[in-house]
Each structure stands twice: as structure tokens, then as C-alpha cells.
Amino acid sequence: MLKVHDKKDFDLAAMELKNKRVLVIGLARTGVATALFCAARGARVTATESRPEAQVGGVADKLRAAGVKLEFGGDGDSRIAEQDLIVPSPGVPADAPLLLAARKRNVAVWSEIELAYRFLHGMLIGITGSNGKTTTTSLIAHILELAKFPTLLAGNIGIPLISCVERTGPETVTVAELSSFQLELVEKFRPRISVFLNLTSDHLDRHLTMDRYAAAKARIFENQTAEDFAVMNADDPATRPLAPSGAAVYWFSRTGGVQQGSFVRGDQIVFCRDGEEEVLARRQDITLVGEHNLENVLAAATASRLAGANAQAIAEGVRTFAGVEHRLEFVAEVGSVRYYNDSKATNVDATLKALGAFPGRVLIILGGKDKGSDYTALRKPLHQKASVVLLIGAAAQKIESQIAGRVRIERAATLERAVEMAWHVAQPGDVVLLAPACASFDQFENYEHRGRVFKELVRQIEKRGAVTASSNVVARGTAKESAAAPRRASKGS
Prior knowledge:
With 493 residues, the chain is an alpha/beta fold. The protein has helices at residues 29-40, 59-65, 97-104, 112-117, 133-146, 180-183, 204-207, 210-218, 291-307, 311-320, 348-356, 379-385, 396-403, 415-425, 447-492, and strands spanning 21-25, 44-49, 69-72, 85-88, 108-109, 123-128, 151-155, 173-177, 193-196, 229-233, 248-253, 261-265, 268-273, 276-282, 329-334, 337-341, 362-367, 386-392, 409-413, 431-434. The strands form three sheets. It has a nine-stranded mixed β-sheet with strand order 7-8-6-9-10-11-12-13-14, covered by helices on one side.
């Protein structure tokens, strides 16, 4: 296993929170975990939430019991000057007027992952990129667990990094998915191994330009040194210029060889370090569909090997990894039609990769909350692959205007209606795919909620299909008996 950073060398001795005034903005999962963490260490915590208390649920009582002062219906603007530290929700932009005003008053503004890093023990592996983060993060954790490392899975995957601090020790490996929103507000945050998967247009409603979006992502490398590793995609021209000069860079490629990192040779996934090669796994071991998942496996294998996992654990991990919920997740087969849930495909590039995973006809459900995306890139692939596009949500009109004329389009409005329409239109051998290319917040709490609703709707279709099939069997049996009855009668006369 790699040597872990000595945090004292980097002025990161355990930070004293006792009696510090901390403002936490936003009371979703991350905000709640952050407020409780700080309060448990004696900080004087105020948490503010724009929603009314009735929409927060029982967490308000839990926070008050921990000594957290709560304010609802505001953003904490009146309390900026009083604070020692402000930890905003990932949903609050780094350039929000409130945070800019705080910095002018020399108030520290950190993301939750920055605060967590100050207390974290052991090794940290951070994964970012536009697509594939959750699959790659989960696969790395799966491999390291098989390699018998004490492993924690955290970050943007749904488990706040701050909530894992108490479970870390010198031998712990924490594998964290990191979003651009989280990385915007780091200061000393330093993964031992960083992974940057790819960069495509996303979150431009927040970052406004690709340059700003890329810069936020690239902050994952900001504090790395020659002792650290950066794992990067040699096949992605958008990320190559972002390669750090400080860390040792290891590349992964599915199209050609690399001198340091992992690549595909025939059926083998080969890892090369300092001129020495070893086979980590085989392509036939990968159970995940789509060429993009080959890239995710290459990245995960590279990071896992650098962390100290042996080739046997990596091969077993790749072979036994079943995938992640809401990422090209097989739901059911009804009447020889397969249904897949890729609710995590919240941008155009992710939808393109989902389409590319299937060789036959696809009925695809698109739409939701637009993130400033350009959907024209979908025109040609939809023309080639999709028999029908079913549009839902607030972005439906924009998507239709940018893909019209290349594919049959149906306005379904809601996910329920889209699944119903797909069931009636699909032919045996087709795939019904939820890969929306949009955020979910217009009609759902998050992409997980959208994916769960889709799966439940498919299960309802599955039950209806089973009833229909059973009724058809009974009807065929009755018809045979009716046809046979006259023959028996005539035979007996």
C-alpha cells in the first residue's frame, strides 16, 4: 500500500473547531452532516435553509438537539461578519454574492470536502470527470475491498465525506466521487490518487463557460506533489491539457498503448509502470455494457494498482462488479423488450454513450431540467439508433427544436406517460432506455428518485404483461377446447 501523507508536513494538523463560529448553508444531506460534525466538536453552529422548516422534516429536531441554531427562509446573509467559517451546500455557486462578501471580510469559505480533508486519516482517492464517476468510484472501492484494504466509499455518490471521518484510521482508503461543485471551494484538499475521467459539456447553467467548468474540475490536482498520482484519459482531448505538472501522471487508453498506465492489448488490460508490464484483467471479464465502461474499468484498474491492489484482486473485482443503480441498469424484459434505467445520464455526452451501448433499435426517454446543454449532438445518433424519442419535462421544447426532422418524436410530458407509450410502441428485440440528458429537478427530487420511479413503472408494466400473457394462454386453451368439442361429439355419435 502507498505511503500515506504526513499531514503535519503540510500544515494540516487537526483543526480546532471548539468555540469557532460556523455557518452552514443548506440542509440537504451534506449540510446536515456538516452541521452535526462541527457541533460535535464544540463549534457554535448556525445552519440556514431557504426552505420552510416543514419541508426539512425530522432533521430539524436532530440538529437542535445537537445544539445547532436553525434559521429558515433565508441564506445567512445577515450573519456573514460574525463567522469564522462558512460551509455552503454544493448547490451554492462559489461566486454567489453571499460568499464573495464573506471572502472580502476574510471569512474562510470551504466546501464540505475541504473541511472533511482537514480531519481525514489514511489514503484518499478522488474521482472526478463529467461522466462515469459513480461507476469508477464504486469499482475502485469494490476492488480494494477484495484486496483486503479497509475501504470507505464517499462523496458525491450520496455519502458526505464529512460523515466518514470518524471511521478513518491510518490504514483506511477512502474512495470519493468529487463534483465540480465540491471542488470549486477547496484550499488544501489533496488526494493521494486523483482520477480525471473525461470532460464534456455539463453544468453550464452553473459554470457558464467550459473553461470555468474545466478549471473547477482540475482543482483536484491543485495541491498534489511528486509523491502523488494523477490518473487521466489519454483518449480525451479535452482533459489532456489539464494534466498536472506536480503529480506523477498515469494514463489509460482503450485505443492505443501508453508508457505509464493501462491500455488494451487484444483481450488483455495491461498495466505498465517504469517499463514493466503486467496483465490486470481481460475484456471478457467486464460485465458492464458499452465502450465507455471499458474506459471506466481501465481508470479503476489503474488507480487500484497504484493504491496497492494486486492483479488477482483487480481481475476478480472487474469480473464480479455488477454495476451501479441508475447507470445503464437493466430493469426487466417484458414481451422480449428490454428496459434500462440510465437516470444518471444527466448530460448529452452520457446519453450518447448510453445510446452507443446498444446495437439495435432503441426507444429513448429524454428531458427534464435543462443545464444549458446543446442537444444537436444527439441528432445523428438518434437518427441511426432510435425508433422513437419520448420527451418529458421542462426541456422538451428545446430538445425537440434541436433534434426535429431526424427521428420520430412524441411529447409524453411525464415519465409515467412515456413508459406507457413505450410499452405500446416497442417491438420484440427493442430496448426502452431512460437516458434523459437533463437534470431531474423539474419533476423529481434527484436522479435517484427519477430512476426509482422509472423502475417501478416498468415493474407495473411487467405485471400487466404477465397478466396479459396468462390471459392469452387461457384464451388459447379455451379456443382449443371449443374447437375439439364438436369433434368429440361427432365421434361419439
